[in-house]
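Journal club prep — side note

Before the paper discussion, L.F. wants everyone to see what a predicted structure for a comparable chain looks like in token form. Sequence:
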Amino acid sequence: QVQLVESGGGLVQPGGSLRLSCAASGFSFSNSAMRWYRQAPGKERELVAGISSSGSITVYGDSVKGRFTISRDNAKNTLYLQMNSLKPEDTAVYYCKATRFDSWGQGTQVTVSS
């Protein structure tokens, strides 16, 4: 079955950086477009970034453009999210998802605070 395991979250000061990882298994990762989502307390889950199966096409939410970079390593079945210039409003649980499956991982908590 589809398994997604997010990692790399933590507590970081405003202006800092974090790199999230998502280890995928149970499906053909290299043939799957992938997305990062996030959900802050009391808010709906929102799309952060997406990437095509080859990695040649990426899209970003307006709130993270220019600060976050989505990438993937198909040889390692791993999705990444490099987050720079972090702001307190980036605080959320971050999830990865394959676009063609309904499965979600457990998420990884990112907290931006001084």
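L.F.'s comment for the group: DSSP finds no helices and ten strands in the chain. Keep this in mind when we get to the figures.
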